[in-house]
Amino acid sequence: MSNYFNTLPLREKLNQLGVCDFMDSSEFLDGVSALKGKKLVIVGCGAQGLNQGLNLRDSGLDVSYTLRAAAIEGKRDSWKNATENNFNVGTYEELIPNADVVINLTPDKQHTAVVNAIMPLMKEGATLSYSHGFNIVEEGMQIRKDLTVIMVAPKCPGSEVRAEYVRGFGVPTLIAVHPENDPQGKGLAQAKAYAVGTGGHRAGVLKSSFVAEVKSDLMGEQTILCGLLQTGSILSFDKMVEKGIDAGYASKLVQYGVEVITEALKQGGITAMMDRLSNVAKVKAFEISEELKDIMRPLFQKHQDDIMSGEFSRIMMEDWAAGDKNLLAWRAETGETAFEKTPAGDVKITEQEYFDNYTLMVAFVRAGVELAFETMVQAGIKPESAYYESLHETPLIANTIARKKLFEMNRVISDTAEYGCYLFDQACKPLLADFMKKVDTDLVGKNFNEGKDGGVDNRTLIDVNEAIRSHEVEQIGATLRKAMTAMKAIKTA
Amino acid sequence: MKESFVSIENLDLKYQQKSVLTDLNWIINKGENYVLYGESGSGKTALAKIIAGLQNAIGDVKINFNAKSHLPEAVLFVESWYQFKNLEGVANFYYQQRYTSQQAKDTLTVHAELIHYGKEKGLHFDQVEPILEALNFSAFASSQLIELSSGEHKKLQLVKALWLKPQLLIIDQPYTGLDAASRKNLNVLLDEVSADGVQLLLICNDAELPTSINRFAEIVNEQIAISNSKAVQLVSNKKHTKEIPDFLKESPAFSSDNVVKMVNVNISYGEKQVLKNIKWEVKAGEKWLLQGHNGSGKSTLLSLINGDHPQSYANELYLFGNRRGSGESIWEIKQHIGLISPEFHWYFDANATVWQSIASGFYDTVGLFQQLPYTKSAQVDELTAYFGLTKSKNELLSTLPLGKQRLVLLARTIIKNPELLILDEPCQGLDQDQTEHFNHLVDELCSNGMTLIYVGHFESQLPTCLEKRILLEKGEVKVVESLNIEILS
């Protein structure tokens, strides 16, 4: 198998990277009818598998699960998840031949093995659905020509997909049809019906392509989403301890700080996040985030270049083949960091204090989101896709850090994200060494406004506000957020 | 010479520019066990929280702990309405989650939670076992916190409080959600800890109290009035004289004569069976009372009807004439139903305003996600006025007193004039006056022929329109009967 994207002529590369259409709600008036009465068989019953299946069934669709024989015999968790919720469960041989739509919700790393096992069993003209395009685009999996290949990717963890559905809402969802596999032209109608079945149509559906999804998803997760949050958190914690701030306080500020700060980002973009700072702090955060952008730009570009050329996937798959040697070593290292080992102190930190005492993280987030967005757009990815894969997902990842710090974040995210995070963190820390030497506790650990008179130059403030607000990520964000009307508050501890 | 234990001087509390407590003075002496009562919204809970140091106010609150006592120098406040969180402090749960089986556990078991609590407070585990026994809670040891009903959560909070034995124990609505037997046992346990030196302050309007209660305080005109016995409460004669909105006078559009039909319904989680061979039919227009002790399976039964239970797909269950799992969506089922329960209230959208909450009933969503057409919007206005909520229509639901929040959710359940109204302990946490008002409304609203399933305990007041009763015991149907007045008295 060879990298699918690299087999395309430039014209087709640009064409597929540029598929990006925020769909109007009138596109979903047909509801789930394109899948009504069809046999949907989900492969895998983890968090995404179970929760998507519960939603699809509650939308009136016929859902069952197929698992590897070993998982069924061993009564593994996936088997329990499915049977205890009264789903029909069977082996590949039992269920795949009758399936109209096979939904592959196994981890990325297993895709090649899973698809090779199920494809020969699939009936003529059936549909194969993915929630991530890595297998098709990067591994170059060839699917039988009679089969339709679609992607439906809810942009949230499985538990959220379910929680929002039963509240009567949904999570933003990306759909795509693989142009090499749409022999009957039914792919889009089925993908739309699937998005309705999981509730995604209520929160906004973006029509994308396998290529655009993979190239933007990889970029977002390894730079801003996981990479920078990891690097920024550890550097911040270490700086505070170095400067004599109580370790328990520092641990709590870092663990919950990103979540509180990015909640403002979720509701009103970078503008809202920066507006939570005082004028002096905002000007300072702007200046250092500009500096951070200059320092990190080459690294962001390198990540994007390696993703586009397939170099990233190549070395990651090498590590897979080597039994995840690099990844596991790094995962263990993360578990041993001082931040990870220091429990959050029993101190009350108010919501505003998270901004005032953690100005550095606000600067990190602005720099990371804007850089990731800019780099993606420069590489030919459309602004809407770039928005979802940078700004939109940042609060979701921050939420996992709040739950159980970085180790939990790395456990929850996909293997590809974790590997990318590993590469980024390795390179980014040395890059920021000089910068961090200049950072003092006014930026992290103590209230930035303390001992300052709060005055700013009118002109400077106007320029800073203008630069923040006129950035393209803010403009596209305002439009997309308006479509996703209901914003749920994340609780703070 | 009396020795003061809690002394409150010149306390002032305002809520949104309105005075709630003004220049309040109150001395609780050593050995005095109080019941605090007063009208809804008079500031009882706020006062208790101020004493416990959980809320700020202007004025002085001093607590004179006994340094020689073996009991912890602490004030513990047990809330009437308890929102649990998981260990990481995250509370983003949803209503239907307790019915779904997930191997990735998000919350601790009751046992693990108690071990955690005991460790934190330095308590011995063997001392909690008799309390669990007395409150009939031992069987829940292996249950996940998410699986507990609101009544069961309340019990868990009581268990912790009785185990800790703080020098001052304040309980807001101690009997909420408890069945008759548990209430009696709770009083015995409260007397025991009182004998051991714990001073009690209970906030409630109930008549059956622990014998150790020896003082009563009422909040009247923003101040404390103390007596040795409870003043006879005048049940207010505020009759609800407003006309029901016209759109609710019309009989609901019944889609079938058979609203619910269950044929041998069984539900279990792993080894634990919570419903056994349930047979039950509800016909259009019938008014049912559903009863059973805590944990008898009432909520699970109702969740099957409301489309909230994943296991309904494997049971023979007919809703509104259609077999469950024959291709309908849960939203099609919910269109026929208006439901409230303490758990539903628990998980309701904290960011919705009163108006939005009522309007969301049209779409059965938790929070409002779409624009309302003109006629529907006018109906929301009309119903808001009928419930006397117009003034607070733009306030956040979660900032209103509990009684008013329930009225809002009742309004939400009937806004679409549903075929079936399910009221699962709708008056839990409300005082006598509010309960009466609430049930009076239910009677009026149901007079248009709506089907009703109402869950309430014997001793609480019930709407008069109820005509049939089903009693569950340990997950089985124990009694199905016509209801006459004697059963209710």
From TrEMBL, chain A:
<feature type="active site">
    <location>
        <position position="132"/>
    </location>
</feature>
<dbReference type="InterPro" id="IPR013023">
    <property type="entry name" value="KARI"/>
</dbReference>
<feature type="binding site">
    <location>
        <position position="217"/>
    </location>
    <ligand>
        <name>Mg(2+) 1</name>
    </ligand>
</feature>
<keyword id="KW-0028">Amino-acid biosynthesis</keyword>
<comment type="similarity">
    <text>Belongs to the ketol-acid reductoisomerase family.</text>
</comment>
<dbReference type="InterPro" id="IPR036291">
    <property type="entry name" value="NAD(P)-bd_dom_sf"/>
</dbReference>
<dbReference type="Pfam" id="PF07991">
    <property type="entry name" value="KARI_N"/>
</dbReference>
<feature type="binding site">
    <location>
        <position position="389"/>
    </location>
    <ligand>
        <name>Mg(2+) 2</name>
    </ligand>
</feature>
<feature type="binding site">
    <location>
        <position position="278"/>
    </location>
    <ligand>
        <name>substrate</name>
    </ligand>
</feature>
<feature type="binding site">
    <location>
        <begin position="45"/>
        <end position="48"/>
    </location>
    <ligand>
        <name>NADP(+)</name>
    </ligand>
</feature>
<dbReference type="GO" id="GO:0004455">
    <property type="term" value="F:ketol-acid reductoisomerase activity"/>
</dbReference>
<dbReference type="InterPro" id="IPR008927">
    <property type="entry name" value="6-PGluconate_DH-like_C_sf"/>
</dbReference>
<comment type="function">
    <text>Involved in the biosynthesis of branched-chain amino acids (BCAA). Catalyzes an alkyl-migration followed by a ketol-acid reduction of (S)-2-acetolactate (S2AL) to yield (R)-2,3-dihydroxy-isovalerate. In the isomerase reaction, S2AL is rearranged via a Mg-dependent methyl migration to produce 3-hydroxy-3-methyl-2-ketobutyrate (HMKB). In the reductase reaction, this 2-ketoacid undergoes a metal-dependent reduction by NADPH to yield (R)-2,3-dihydroxy-isovalerate.</text>
</comment>
<keyword id="KW-0460">Magnesium</keyword>
<feature type="domain" description="KARI C-terminal knotted">
    <location>
        <begin position="354"/>
        <end position="487"/>
    </location>
</feature>
<keyword id="KW-0560">Oxidoreductase</keyword>
<dbReference type="GO" id="GO:0005829">
    <property type="term" value="C:cytosol"/>
</dbReference>
<feature type="domain" description="KARI N-terminal Rossmann">
    <location>
        <begin position="17"/>
        <end position="208"/>
    </location>
</feature>
<feature type="binding site">
    <location>
        <position position="217"/>
    </location>
    <ligand>
        <name>Mg(2+) 2</name>
    </ligand>
</feature>
<keyword id="KW-0521">NADP</keyword>
<dbReference type="GO" id="GO:0009099">
    <property type="term" value="P:L-valine biosynthetic process"/>
</dbReference>
<dbReference type="GO" id="GO:0009097">
    <property type="term" value="P:isoleucine biosynthetic process"/>
</dbReference>
UniProtKB/TrEMBL annotation, chain B:
<feature type="domain" description="ABC transporter">
    <location>
        <begin position="6"/>
        <end position="247"/>
    </location>
</feature>
<dbReference type="InterPro" id="IPR003593">
    <property type="entry name" value="AAA+_ATPase"/>
</dbReference>
<dbReference type="GO" id="GO:0016887">
    <property type="term" value="F:ATP hydrolysis activity"/>
</dbReference>
<dbReference type="InterPro" id="IPR025662">
    <property type="entry name" value="Sigma_54_int_dom_ATP-bd_1"/>
</dbReference>
<keyword id="KW-0067">ATP-binding</keyword>
<protein>
    <submittedName>
        <fullName>ATP-binding cassette domain-containing protein</fullName>
    </submittedName>
</protein>
<feature type="domain" description="ABC transporter">
    <location>
        <begin position="260"/>
        <end position="487"/>
    </location>
</feature>
<dbReference type="GO" id="GO:0005524">
    <property type="term" value="F:ATP binding"/>
</dbReference>
<dbReference type="InterPro" id="IPR027417">
    <property type="entry name" value="P-loop_NTPase"/>
</dbReference>
<dbReference type="InterPro" id="IPR003439">
    <property type="entry name" value="ABC_transporter-like_ATP-bd"/>
</dbReference>
<keyword id="KW-0547">Nucleotide-binding</keyword>
<dbReference type="Pfam" id="PF00005">
    <property type="entry name" value="ABC_tran"/>
</dbReference>
